[in-house]
Write a structure and sequence with these properties.
This protein is mainly beta. Among the domains are: 242-411, Sandwich (Jelly Rolls); 420-580, Galactose-binding domain-like (Jelly Rolls), CATH 2.60.120.260. Helix content is 7%, strand content 47%. It has 9 helices and 89 strands. The strands form 21 sheets. Strands 1, 60, 61, 82, 83, 84, 85 and 86 form an 8-stranded antiparallel beta sheet that branches. A hairpin with a 5-residue loop joins strand 48 (643-648) and strand 49 (654-660). The protein is elongated, with a radius of gyration of 46 Å. The two termini are 43 Å apart. It comes from Huiozyma naganishii (strain ATCC MYA-139 / BCRC 22969 / CBS 8797 / KCTC 17520 / NBRC 10181 / NCYC 3082 / Yp74L-3). This is Bud site selection protein RAX2. Residues 861-1088 form the Rax2-like C-terminal domain. The chain crosses the membrane at residues 1142-1169.
Amino acid sequence: MWCSVVYCLWFAVAITRASNLENVRRILNATEVTVPTFDVGNKNNQFQILDDINGISFYEYLGQQNFTTDANVTDVQRLIYYSNETFMSLSDSIAAEAQIQGIIPLGDDSFILSGQGMINNVSLASQLVFNMTDLSITKIFDTPLRSIEGVTVDGPLVYFMGNFTFNNNTGAIMWDSRDRSINLLPFHGFGPYANINSILKLNDDNILFAGHFSTVWNSSLLLQSNVSEESVRNTTSLLLNPSVPLQYSQWKTNGELDSSQLICPDPSKDSWSVSATTGDFTCELPFQITPSKIRIYNSPDKDSQVSLFRFLTYPAGSIMNLTYLDPLSGNMTSCDAFCPLYSKTVLQSQWDNTAEANTVAIINNNSTNIQWTPNYQEFALVSPVAATSLEFNALASYGNNLGLAGFQIYQASFSAFGNNSFNTPNCNNNDKDSNNTFTSSSLSPNNWTSVGEYLTVGYTPNENPVPKVTYKIDIQHSGEYSINVFTPGCSADNTCSTRGIVNYTLFDTVTNKMLATSLIYQNNDEIKYDTLYSGQLNSSCEITMTYYSGLYASNTVTTIVADRVDLNIISMDLSHRTEVSKLALNGLFQYQISNFTNDSIPMKIANTSLNQFALNNFEPSVSLRAFPLSNSSILLSGTEGNMFSINLNTDLSVQNSTRLISTENFTTFQPYSNGLVMLDGQGNVSLFKDNFKNLNTTMDGSLATDVANITLNGDELLVFNNGYIYNVTSQQQTRSNSSIFNLTVSSAGANSINDTIFLGKVVQWQYAIANQSAQVNADFNDGIEQMSLPSNTVPSRGIFLNDDSTGYFYKESNKSKLYITNSNSTSGLEWYGEPETVVYDKNDTLLMVGYYNDNTFSSTLSLTNLTSFDVIKEENLNVGSSISSLLYFAKNDTLLVAGDFEPSNGNCSDLCLYNYKSGQWDSLANNSVSGSVAALQLYQNDTILVLGNLTLPQANDVNMAFVNLSNNHVGSLIMKKDAPVNLHSMIVSNSRIVAWNDTVLFSFDGNSWTRVSVPGTDSSATSISSVQFISMEGTDDALLLLGEFRHSEFGDIKSIVYNFRDWIPYLLYVDGPRQGTGHLFMNRDISLHNIAQIPLLNSTRVLTNQSFASSTSSSVSSTSTTLPKVSTTHSKPGRRIVDRGFVVLIGLALALATVSVMGVAGVLLAYIFRDNVGDSYQTLNPRMDENAMVNTLPPEKLKNAT
């Protein structure tokens, strides 16, 4: 169970102070970005993104881009922080195999992370503390703690629970966050094979443990102090010899052997078998024992049952003399080399006809009991000897093969090992051999190291903690015992020079009386034992071994070893015995803290009504889980759907209970604000508070088998692992993942101040756009909305018609159609292909479209009257041609057509004048501009800007040129060498020109050109698709860009603003299935830049290589042609001095003189300097590169939006 009562009910806790959001922002440099507000120059101050969009968001903080990518990538998950509608990634991508099973708040500034795998190169199995003040991760345990079922936090104390053993504590351990100390629970955890599933804090003094266990590790705490005497009446229930743990033994055989099943047998299955009538196996022990008896389970197969055997021990290498109770005669009988085993048929027959009391015998001064049952026979060693290896020889069979179901060894002493692994019994069950008598040990929190069956630790005197080992031996029969303590030899591990002295002390755990104490020197060369005590013992005992001193210098490291303690049976008085009653547990234990801190309370563990409830209402060996339902009620769940709702009194006694009836066997439970959500792993899900409410969580045939609880944007969500999401707040059962909202949560935790951490993936967009284009308010406070267009309509471009009407081109099948907004319907117009360029003259309602014809594989020029919707003219160009741009000269009924084409009836190509009334094609400026043209624009009414792969009379390799309509002047503006990749698009305003390719902008501000690189660390992922002028502080003082921008600081961005100084991230959005390149449509009148207001000149005179204004300078080069500021000269009013005719003559004379002088001067200059035309164009010097842009706008300088 991955929460405490405090955590599970965190929803009700009032937020008393701000979350750690600002601190996390600071550390991650996740600065808030001020979303720009601007003017787009139309009446609604809105613009549109023509694209197939699913979801869109304003860019509001650095790192936001991490949560706008595809969350369905199966091998990517992150540790994510969330607060106040802000997501931030706390880690790099975490591999899918890493599992954080628990995220539990620890105070207001930390979380416990528990699980498996690695995070930030730290093992989750070490149980981690994630500190919110500095985002550091620290380990709690140096040694990984695996098989954790849950973590419960109680103030500064953290309880870890599960199926593990740590420092000889099983099932649970406690960590104090104040001093970072690992503390053993006062009852030292639970019994062997215990598994703790839940820990609940009932109140400040009581904690409830639920799981699979039947005792606590220090079982003496379960002993009742009242002593009663009674005669022993049933000798078959006596357990005088403990079984030897054989899990760590090495086995050899000439047949097939399953050692785990052999030592913990199922009588109905063979665990050793040989396809012959003779066979053997050997067992190499990890430590020396003195066996007292063996128990043999014959094969269940009649053809494999052993009939004769012998038993040998090593190093003696002797066949053992055995004695047994003969099932046929009922007498004690001996054997050695040929010992009989009866068939199971014979054993069953004799069992049916023999009194149970006659199937057991007590021998060896009441220290050994031997018996037989239908499943096994026992044989006692007549003269036990020490052994390190055992051998079983099968000499004959009742059939053709050999087999045994089980083989167990017992000894006359109880051994408690310092290495607690060797204290675990062979079987994890509730039989008397496994649980009624066992040994255990617990360790001080030093760095103990296992060396086989013993432990060692290096200790520097006067440091804390002092090494200590506590051995527990639980005995139920009073008698004469001796206690030997073993010390490994120092020569084996070369520690003779560092060994020290330890103190052993023996206590009676019932009376707490010290029975013996002794100082033991540990510098012996070989293994030895010392007798600590010999005498009467009436109850369980506890032996402590504590560091006493070193043998050498007081400040040197002393080596302390802890091996085993043997309690040897001398004799037992079985006619009368003193028996101490023992409290039983069945998967539920109420731990009262004050009982262990108050020395005046003799009974540390009380027989509470909660403990008794589990014994009375659940089957033995149940595995329980406990969950809070309210402050005074809990839910207990066992196996096979057995569940109870329990109401508690103020003293925590059971007031009443209700058995909950459910047809499902729920295995997963997740607390949430209104109760529990339960899953059975088969797709059945129920919510429970006072009754069950079933949820149908099936998603696309996938069943939910796990769930996490998280609150986002004020909505409490139950997130299932199949993609289904239940909104607890709105009680909606239909929310599922999509490209707009995609949430995967494997675990989550939240504290009381609104910090949430979860492991998973998330995609969340501010605005949902259902596969449509988006309409964006330039004032971001007014948000973004979906455009009102027919369903499945994604326009490729828009055209401003007037303040009330807009046209949108969209494709349907292989045709393009026009949708007009004022009629909310299509116009009926169709084009066989995609429009490449569109111009609209609102005075004549003339729509001019250049498009690529899919049917003829050529471009077509079409003119349509939008009043009558009549097609006025269509002109098909040659196959493979393209039209890139149009300008319209209304006074001449002529279009300037640009692209890559050659009319069949004209004297031009690529850039031609077309009179649509006469159908005549003609050249512009006597074909002085040639080459493939990408774009045209009108600048300041009388200048045509031409962009493409161009050639002029005076220069080759031109990227941008101009033609002055007033005098047909032609000149170059940008050479190819200035732009390594040709510029292919441009826009103009009254004061600026901007041209671009995929990654570079060229900007002219009326005085000089500037080259600007678009932000992007990966040129292959950066691409400009659309640019438009916007106004932020003045006219046309900023640009809005759309495209794909990948930046090291901003991440992947769809739209960005450039104010000719700084780059500001603006929009993020996700494309739908019909995604295109995306187009910015400002829905404003741009006719000044594509419809000329002056007529074309009739003259074909062309002036080249000249500037329009000699006063205009350029920053590109001192000799390149610059775009002018157009000026008009006026004559001064006054008295006429010279008649008009004379003026003309004088002007002509002056002109001739001027031309002569200039000609002579030009020849001289040309001769002297000999400049080539091509060399006069210098490379543009970039004014700002990407690094400069980042430095200009560091993320921390971005302001918060207000």
